What we know:
Blueprint: H1 7-24, H2 29-50, H3 57-79, E1 101-108, E2 115-125, E3 128-129, E4 133-139, E5 152-155, E6 160-161, H4 173-179, E7 182-188, E8 194-196, H5 203-218, H6 225-236, H7 244-252, H8 263-276, H9 286-304, H10 309-326, H11 333-347, H12 355-375, H13 383-410, E9 412-414, H14 417-443, H15 450-471, E10 476-478, H16 484-503, H17 506-529, E11 534-537, E12 545-550, E13 553-558, H18 567-575, E14 579-580, E15 589-592, E16 595-600, E17 615-618, H19 626-633, E18 637-640, H20 646-659, E19 663-665, H21 666-669, E20 672-675
Parallel strand pairs: 4-7, 13-14, 16-17, 17-18, 18-19
Antiparallel strand pairs: 1-2, 1-5, 2-3, 2-4, 5-8, 6-7, 9-10, 11-12, 11-20, 12-13, 15-16
Amino acid sequence: MKLLHFSIIKFTICLIIGIILSKTLSISVFYSFLITVCFTALTVFLYFIFKKKNNYLYIFGITCYLTFIAFGLFISNSNEDLNKTNHFSNYSSRDTASTTITFRVRELLKPNAFSKRYYVDILKLNNNTVIGKALLNVKKDSLQIQLPIDAIYTTALPLVDVKKPLNPDQFSYKDYLEKQQVHYQLYADQTNLLQLQNKTHTLFGYAAKLRNHINSKLNPYQYTNDQLSIINALILGQRQNITKEVYDNYTNAGAIHILAVSGLHVGIILLILNLVFKPIERLKNGKFYKTLILVILLWTYALIAGGSASIIRATTMFSIVAIGINLKRPTNIYNTLAVSVFILLLIKPNFLFDVGFQLSYAAVIAIVSFQPIIEKLWTPKYKIVTLLWQTLTVTVSAQFGIIPISLYYFHQFPSLFWLSNLIVIPFLSIILGLGLLVITLALFGLPKTLLSDAFGMVINWMNSFFGWISSQEDFLIIDIPFTVAQVIVSYIFIFCLYALYHNKNYRWLQLTLISVLVLQLSYTIVQFNSKSNQFIVFHKSRNTLLGKKHNNQLATFSTLKTAETNAIIRSYAVKNALQTMPSKPIINLYKLNNKHLLVVDSLAVFNLKGITVDYVVLTQSPKLNLTRLIDSLKPKVIIADGNNYRSYVNRWEATCLKQKLPFYHTGKTGAYIINY
């Protein structure tokens, strides 16, 4: 492929391989640095040896690639906060009662049902100056005010580990936070936090103040909460206040990217700024000054919009595009993409594992690769039809890149995505331009006008339209099982299809057909692996939730009426390609081939004769003498689920310890799985 003739693309691929290896291999920062130095020295040495011997240049090329792989390994390891000696985890005291923590509020996150959440920078642990991020959970209160960005607080609360999910195949918030360099969290309320005086401010703090100022200036325009939340998401990059209903509507309509300030928004803003500052080109060295202004304004906007991962990567990419366009330098879009990826991963290697990062670049690569091919299929006669056709081809092309990743992470496919984008995308530049104009007028103190009302009506129309699309449930395909292996094979198939179109030879036809067969084989393997039999005691607070997996079906037994629709069950069923059966009431005895499992509930009935009990599940806090049960039934394992009083669980654990019998509490060890 011609793409691989560009050195920066090959080096970027090698860098990515090195970053992935750093997550799979346990290599210290020192040894990864040593490996990088050795390969760099070897590459330089071979360059002088083989620079005039073309027959051996491939040896130099191999060492060059290995150097970039080693470099990816090193920067990934060195970028990990836990590997730094001044990280606060290295100063943690075992006596948490005497620990004093000082932190700076860094970023406001979307709140959950119980608390407002923030990323904070830990500044001091007792008297030690430290670094590192943590998650702060502040209990919700009707009188609670939002913690200001850059505000510094001190507290005596302990830092605790972020817990892994207690049920199989659940979304792991712990893994997600680790990719954000967050390994610990704090739980607090307003009374636990003491604000300190702070005379220093960061750029993020100034940006937050500007966003707050903009919102205060928009108050006279009397926008509703839904309107204001969409304006903040669409233009200011803040999605924290969007209601779940509105957010789900955009997601189910396949238009959630509209609410995430990313490449689409930054690209439109670049076009608007490029048009506004075009007169500067008439000055001497005008193109240079214009390019400088564009780049500065793009990064200023990125900062105002919160500086999230999606905004930073989009701004990096379009800064390179702006430089290439305005300085009339010949550019290749794949080169531009590779340069932006390379720069971003050098700064923050963990971007590679960010879902938004993967989706953004997959979509852009797919668009520039497939859109010209699809567009050639039809040439409309009228300009308006041409615009709609181009929008449709861009939307469809993007799906080639994002469908495999979307299926893996979200397990759903909004089949009306084309309609959502076809109606909104052609007008998005006008909507963004109108929004920027309204905000500018608000900052100058202009009162409510027909223009501000029109913008509010447009936001209402968008919300209503996507709500209607979302309500067409027959067109939303959900609970699609998709594995990592299937993602990889899908991209191999898409790549082979693209290569076959351009080369049209027997070799690429063979590879395309082979990739189709491998994709089919992967589905067969998933179905085969799902045929094992398991009985699962899930962890569910204040409820009993049991699952019996047989072949490709999952039967559920629970105190919940529709347990099969519960998120715990759905997640497990989707990941394992299982068909869920309607939930049934819990029974006391389950036969698992030649084994038996007894459920002892609040009635505490366990009088069995002639049956050997292997497992006992205690649920609904039964009042029983556990020692008598053990002596009577002689089980091999005692399991307590999440539907028990903590005091009871502690007492049962002490009894089992005394009896030297294995005891498992799902609230501590997670769901208990029995293979039979």
